[in-house]
Each structure stands twice: as C-alpha cells, then as structure tokens.
Amino acid sequence: MPYSWITPPSASDPMSPCEMHLWPHQSLPPQGYARFIGVTALLIALPLLAFAGSVVFWGLLPFLLLALFGLKYALDRNRRDAQVIEVLTLDTHEARLERRNANGTQQSWQCNRFWVTVELHPLGGPVPNYVTLRGGGREVEIGAFLSEDERQALYDELLQVL
Questions:
Q1: How far is CA 130 from CA 65, 86, 110, 124, 156, in A?
Q2: Please, which residues have CB within 8 angstroms of residue 74's CB and are 6 or more apart in sequence?
Q3: Pick from 34, 141, 28, 152: nearest CA to 82
Q4: Cα separation of 63 and 39, whole Å?
Q5: In whole angstroms, what is the distance from residue 6 CA to residue 16 CA?
Q6: Are 51 and 57 in contact (CB under 8 A)?
Q7: Domain positions in the chain
Q8: Diameter over CA atoms, the chain
C-alpha cells in the first residue's frame, strides 16, 4: 500500500497520537528506470549499426537520439510530478493534514479531532471511492492519488481510528 502508519494508533487507547504518510505509487524504481533507458538505447542502436559508416547513419542518428531523450524527459517529468506526500497527524485533541505538492507548495488543514468525520463518496467525487475529511468548516480530500481499492481500505482504517 502506498500509505503507512508511521506511529500506529493504539488499540487500547483510541485517542493516542498517531501519524500516517500517504504517497502516489511509483511503479518504476530507480534500477528499473536505468535498465529501461539502457535497453531502449540498445534497441535503438542495433538497427542503426547496419548503417554505420554511411550518410544514412548521420541522417537517422539525430532523430533516434531525440526519441531517446524525449523518453527520458517524459519519465523524469512523471517521477517529478509524483513527488507528492500527505501527512495525517492525529494528536490527542487535534487532527492535521499536510500535503507537500510536487512543485514544493504546501497545503494544510487542521481541526479539533473530536469534530472530524471521514466520508466516502462512491460516485460523487472526481474519482470513485473519493475519501474526504470534514471538520473546522472545511472538507478536504485525502489520498486522491490512491487506487480505488486503496481508497476504500484507507476509508475503513480512518473510520476505525477517528
């Protein structure tokens, strides 16, 4: 699951402080990224070797390099855009949700823990099983980047804790 309890809630004391981190799923680890770029470069270079030493080689080379660097740029941009983290902190009296976006901006929400309600919107949100926290006069989303099943599991866990 792309979320975990850093400080898990206590079963004996439901009002104990706890903290949860949520992040988007990264399907391509750094080792896989390097392998993918390397294999792609190799597959591009193999047909190009048939034209080595000819004018066609120099005509094709810029386009193949452009394709390789375009692929690298797209993968780097995707990784950079997925650098989002949400931190839900539940103290004895306060609930706080902080979100650090990919561009470095931060958003935060806080409320009295006793007034927080967790809501699941199966069809009404921008994604199926949209989970929100309501309290302090505001309603904020949590874990919108998770999959549908992960949002359902998140809702169940938050319902137990809150």
A1: 42, 15, 20, 8, 12
A2: none
A3: 28
A4: 17
A5: 13
A6: yes
A7: 3-26+83-161, 30-81
A8: 76
Alpha helices in 53-97, H assignment, sequence order: 55-81
Cα–chain-centroid distance for residue 109?
19
Write the class of the CATH domain 3-26+83-161.
mainly beta
Are 33 and 74 a contacting pair, CB within 8 Å? Answer: no
Per-residue pLDDT of the chain (162 residues; tens, 9 = 90+): 688 898 888 777 777 889 999 998 888 888 999 999 999 999 999 988 888 889 999 999 999 999 999 999 999 999 988 889 999 999 989 999 999 998 889 999 999 998 999 999 988 778 888 999 999 899 999 998 898 999 999 999 999 888
The CA distances from residue 161 to 18, 39, 66, 84, in Å, are 9, 46, 51, 23
Ranges of beta strands (E only) in the chain are 3-7, 18-22, 85-90, 94-100, 106-112, 117-121, 130-135, 138-141
Q: What is the pTM of this model?
A: 0.77
